[in-house]
Design a protein that fits this description.
Length: about 60
């Protein structure tokens, strides 16, 4: 986990001074969107997996 944080923070520091040519938005926002989106999707994916496992334990074939 700490390696992931170091890697993402290193990328953010490296591109913090760069801007996208058309939108003039910092590239750190663009590169930060992927881990932020993954963090938002992860709880939903875990909930779906838990429902599937619970269904399999009951014997439901879903």
């Amino acid at each position: 986990m700490s390696a992931w944080v170091l890697l993402t923070q290193g990328i953010a520091e490296r591109v913090a001074g760069q801007t996208a040519p058309v939108t003039r938005v910092s590239m750190a926002w663009l590169y930060g969107a992927m881990p932020a989106g993954a963090a938002l999707v992860l709880p939903n994916a875990i909930a779906i997996l838990a429902e599937d496992v619970a269904g399999l334990r009951k014997g439901d074939a879903t």
